[in-house]
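Objective 1b. Sequence-to-structure analysis of DUF7344 domain-containing protein.
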Amino acid sequence: MRTDTTESTTQGTAVTDLSPTDIFGLLADDRRWYALRSLSRRVGSASVDELADELALREGARLSERRDRIRTSLHHHHLPRLCDAGVVRYDAERGTVELLDARDRLAPYLELADADELR
């Protein structure tokens, strides 16, 4: 699991190396899809707590009940997978995550996922 602040092309997979199958695999999980969607709509980094709050609200759960579970799943599963794919920089010590150069590469896939959710 890569959780440092190095660029995505120096370790792990470069964003341009991701196949459509890889990208759809990242977006297949609702929490990863929503985290990427949220990160793509902001400038700079977000805290893991902010993402957990957004996900808890989106899932319709009471914040206090689900936030810790969601934060744990982000920390141990989803963010490391996105980091290993080279699409985010995740600093576990600071609790921040930032979309890297993947914004343009992921945009068409995120739009498809958004359109599918509206159906």
